[in-house]
Amino acid sequence: MNLSLKSTTALALALAVASGPAFAGMDEARAFLDAEIGDMSSLTRAEQEAEMQFFVDAAAPYQDMEIKVVSETITTHEYEAQVLAPAFTAITGIKVTHDLIGEGDVVEKLQTQMQSGENIYDGYINDSDLIGTHWRYQQVRNLTDWIEGEGAGVTLPTLDLDDFIGLSFTTGPDGKVYQLPTQQFANLYWFRYDWFNDEKNKADFQEKYGYELGVPVNWSAYEDIAEFFTGRDLSHMGVDGEVFGNMDYGKKDPSLGWRYTDAWMSMAGMGDVGEPNGLPVDEWGIRVNENSQPTGSCVARGGATNAPAAVYAVTKAIEWLEKYTPPAAAGMTFSEAGPIPAQGNIAQQMFWYTAFTADTVKPGLPVMNEDGTPKWRMAPSPHGVYWKEGQKVGYQDAGSWTLMKSTPVDRAQAAWLYAQFVTSKTVDVKKSHVGLTFIRESTVQHDSFTERADKLGGLVEFYRSPARVQWSPTGTNVPDYPKLAQLWWQNIGDAMSGAKTPQEALDALCADQERVLERLERAGVQGDIGPKLNDEMDAEHWFAQPGAPYAKLDNEDEEPKTVSYDELIASWQ
């Protein structure tokens, strides 16, 4: 199969359209299908051509229109921008500029368009983490109504929304779909399968800790494994250099906030039971009432952002960063830390995004076998001592197409055509082989991924298992993601640097969040679904109520527990 990121054929097609006088439509489409897609699709060739014919016909009124869309820079979006955008332009005559920028910059551009009403981009790929923002502010076109109304004539008959595995993440409490997923990845536990199965390592671990080396079920076991491997001599396995039992990052940067809001707090057990997010208290520690109105973030108002479970979560992260992690990691961001495990000296990472899979299975890496299978595996992340059955156990990123109401209708229609092209069944299997960020059930089940599964370290097994629904993005408790997200990295950064204790940093964080909630409540911009803060009460009142926030445990060390990876995979199947 051709998994190259830059398709010379697709790029050549785009150049031909840019320089040539004739617009060929289906001729260009067939050339694209021949050169780029082949049998890497869940559709037959006839069905592929039918989808392409729709795009040719539906795009006719928009030919020669120039539109701009934007996304963060990950492999999947590079493929969209460098291969699929030129192909779409060649096939439809709509000239697409697909900008690739940092995730924080995407949110900033979107926020600017929300505040100014100026049309900066015709389409945004932004995380479904903003679903609470979009639902409350009503500044994006909800796709449920769009498809029935102004977008009806440009909606692909075979779009098949039910085939999208992350649609629940982009659906508001009103039942409307606000965004269309175009890539999706989870944060999972990553570990060196070969090191864990080495007989000497197993025997030494058993002798030291009294239980079997395996996938850690809880943080106590993760900590033991981190201690065991840090500084361990693995020369008997041909491993050179210093070995570490943990990988993380700690720079005061926007990505530091994602690490905590995405799942670290939920894995620790801070929030309430519930899928896809804890209710009434979520993994941000924000509490809502029965009308989905945010009522507080601090324990005094029934929130959990500064609760004992949150303090435990931050304390453990700092401790492991200092004791078991490469020293340089404290000054790294998310994107800088991501490739480090592939260099071959990391035993495990609790919080590893599957978006890095494509870059971690490249031939010749120290973590790859000569036969193309990985020396590593991925598995569910362990959970902390406050965690209870039914609570959120991990995060999934669902980068999703978002159409702003401030975008003129015709430009939004053209952008919607492009959005559907890059998520269509025609191209999705091939796109998923490049970026490994699944969005469609039909793609997850495609035979080509059955054939490739043993090369991907458990990714396919995870996405074919019931476990995938327990991993979710930020939910609807967060009323203004752009405003609140920046508070996390700024305050947590103070704890990571030692400027404040974890408790002091989290007290400041929850107070900052409540100031934003208070401003939104006073402004009334979100109507009767906006914040409505509880009165402050003694913490003991809230600890006595069912669910989060939870009182401090007398003992935050639980009995360590591990499980065999092979047994775990068998249970998924």
UniProtKB/TrEMBL annotation:
Protein name as catalogued: Carbohydrate ABC transporter substrate-binding protein, CUT1 family
InterPro entries reported for this sequence: ABC_tp_sb (IPR014597), Bact_solute-bd_prot1 (IPR050490)
Annotated source species: Poseidonocella sedimentorum
PANTHER family for the chain: ARABINOSE-BINDING PROTEIN-RELATED, POLYGALACTURONAN_RHAMNOGALACTURONAN-BINDING PROTEIN YTCQ
Signal sequence annotation: 1-24
Keyword field: Signal
Coiled coil: none
Molecular function terms from GO: transmembrane transporter activity
